[in-house]
């Protein structure tokens, strides 16, 4: 029997706030790999220190990933093992990672992704909206293409999940209220797993007014918006006739 292909690149989820939210396997992998690729070496360095680990670290983020990929591939092909982490959550989800994974797979280098923390799952479940079918939209376009995307989402029947920054959340809520309707149910979660964790569920217009009235908004934000399907089903059921076979 041939030896199994060794894993060279690991995608390792890290806590989104509470440092207890890291798996035993993630700690073991971080301790075993040769190098840790970090979105911000200072942030990941504090986590490694908390875990009692000392590892060589390399910066790998949105602004240098294209320059770094070839050098990293050369090292991986020589047998070096690496763990890719982001500042919080699972790397590759609205964070760098896709490019390196794609190139590794193209070269036949084995990639393994560990399960673990990611912000949109608890936000989705805490919203109380349907989780059977949903679409993860990440960050909406900041300028070009934003209105086009919003209009496309007006027809979306699945629950929609967005990431948003504190300084843009009010504008996004206002725009969604305009396109989807002010009464569309939505949920804003921020500071998930942290001391001041908060989830507010209300119609889009109410959420926009709520957050616009605040002196300051802090923390990473996940916005969950109910899709069209449920609203349409309620209206249809109200006027439906009993068409069962007699």
Automatic annotation (TrEMBL):
Record-given protein name: Ribosomal RNA small subunit methyltransferase I
Family membership: Belongs to the methyltransferase superfamily. RsmI family.
Major location (coarse): cytoplasm
Gene Ontology biological process terms in this record: methylation
EC code(s) of this entry: 2.1.1.198
Taxonomic placement: Bacteria, Pseudomonadati, Bacteroidota, Cytophagia, Cytophagales
Role summary: Catalyzes the 2'-O-methylation of the ribose of cytidine 1402 (C1402) in 16S rRNA.
Subcellular locations according to the entry: Cytoplasm
Catalytic class of the enzyme: transferase
This protein's UniProt keywords: Cytoplasm, Methyltransferase, rRNA processing, S-adenosyl-L-methionine, Transferase
Record HAMAP family: 16SrRNA_methyltr_I
Residue ranges constituting the Tetrapyrrole methylase domain according to the UniProt record: 9-208
Catalytic activity from the UniProt record: cytidine(1402) in 16S rRNA + S-adenosyl-L-methionine = 2'-O-methylcytidine(1402) in 16S rRNA + S-adenosyl-L-homocysteine + H(+)
GO terms for MF: methyltransferase activity
InterPro entries for the chain: 4pyrrol_Mease, 4pyrrol_Methylase_sf, 4pyrrole_Mease_sub1, 4pyrrole_Mease_sub2, rRNA_ssu_MeTfrase_I, SAM_MeTrfase_RsmI_CS
Gene source species: Hymenobacter duratus
